[in-house]
Amino acid sequence: RLSPPPPLTGRDQQRIMAGARLHALTLAALAGLAGLSIVRTSPGLRSGLERPSMGAQTRGRVARPVRCRGWFDNLVTSISTMGSKKVLVFRSAGAMIPKKQSQLKGGEDAFFMSRLGGDAGVGDTSFLVQYSADGMNKDKGKQGKVVARLEAATVLGVADGVGSWSQYKIDPGLYSKNLMKNTALAALEISKKRAAQGSAMELLSLGHSQTKLKGSTTTTVACLAGNTLSAATIGDTALVLLRNGKIFYRSPTQEFEFDTPFQLADTKMSDGYGVFCEPEEALEFSVRDIRPGDVLVMASDGLFDNVHEYEIEQIVQDKIKNGEGADAIAQELLERARIHSLDPEFVSPWAQEKSQTESGFIGGTLKKLGGGYKGGKPDDISVVTGIAQYLIPGTDLFLPI
Question: What is d(CA 126, CA 120) in angstroms, rounded to the nearest whole number?
């Protein structure tokens, strides 16, 4: 057995510090000319991160970004990260607002963002945040909004509970919220047992197996491992990926017919209520070569039914140009979708698809007149966004994009 090295003396420590200062002076000019920038968390926040319980109405304490452009900060980061392993994560945010009819019960949508250990690249710092609309203002006639932020997310999910369950006196939001909670917990448990955090399909299957309730939902779950994003989706929730402000990937959706998406459910609990899917029927896909600066937008159909792709691109471009982060993108997308959903004259993606799929006398008349349906689709809206960036494991240091 090797004996431990002798402790450093005060003189040894002084010698090491002097060498570091000399190194700093040597590289200072180069660092200043390079004009590098870093993003770091405020001192003290990292040790204060909390993992709120599922369904907690508090937001938890999440590391807030502080942009530092001084040459000394850049130099310190350059020196401290030389030769360090780096991992790709999403600096993420989520926003949610329910439609008026579902507001009193806290909405029908749910989402989560998780920061995991192991291959997720955050050392032994692991915590999970899950939000629903339960904590918002429930006064009649007012709409509340939930906004959540999470640094270094690697697993994310969105679910949209099916509103028609209300006719059976079943809260449509219970299944979606519990599915997201259980999927997030599955990701956390896997990361404790092994280095790999699991695929999106594996996490969705585990979350589904623990959700023993009547109800159904559409959902998308995504995992980032290395530079590969894997995802599993059922129904019409979806994700898009943007690079340099342009969409380069949009996930497929599953529908029986217009406005009738596939739905995930516990088929035994919900037997006799309709046709439902098991996780094995989900569409599974992956996108390789995710790069720093790529933007993820994952959302319920409340976004994609009311906001065109060119609008998503414009919002992302504007926010990135202004130096704003994932939370600003999520909130702007949410607000744009809300406005369009209530506008009877707006030609929304939902209205366009309805016009295209109309058949019979109505469809023939629309084609002859060269017109179509107008208006948005009022709905619960959930948006999760993330900006890919390299993180130094075990620290709160992010490399410049």
Answer: 9
How many Å is the maximal CA-CA distance in the chain?
Answer: 91
What Å distances lie between residue 111 and 94, 160, 261, CA to CA? 8, 9, 19
Q: How many residues does the chain have?
A: 401
Please tell me the distance from the alpha carbon of residue 309 to that of residue 20, in angstroms, as a whole number: 50
Does residue 156 sit in helix, strand or coil? Answer: strand
CA distances 7 to 11, 13, 16, 20, 303, Å, are 11, 10, 14, 19, 59
Query: Could you tell me the two tokens for 341?
Result: 């959903």
In angstroms, how far is CA 325 from the centroid of its own chain?
13
Please measure the distance between the N-terminal and C-terminal CA atoms of the chain and give it in whole angstroms: 44
Q: Nearest Cα to 215, choosing from 261, 256, 271?
A: 271
* 249: enclosing H helix or E strand: strand 246-250
Query: In which residue are the tokens 């590391």 written?
Result: 63
Nearest C-alpha neighbor of 315 from the set 250, 245, 257, 252: 245
Rounded distance, CA 90 to CA 116, Å? 12
For residue 271, the model assigns a pLDDT of: 86
Question: What are the helix (H) ranges across 194-243?
Answer: 200-209
Pairing between strand 381-391 and 87-97? antiparallel
Single out the residue of 51, 45, 53, 48 nearest to residue 135, CA to CA: 53
Coil vs helix vs strand at 276: coil
Distance, in Å, from the CA atom of 336 to the CA atom of 137, rounded to the nearest integer, reads 21
Q: Cα(228)–Cα(223) distance, rounded to whole angstroms?
A: 8
Whose tokens are 């909130």? That residue is 331
> Mean pLDDT by 10-residue block, N- to C-terminus, for the chain (401 residues)?
51 58 49 38 27 29 35 57 78 89 78 66 37 42 69 92 93 93 86 74 95 96 94 97 98 93 95 91 96 98 98 98 96 97 96 82 57 90 96 87 89
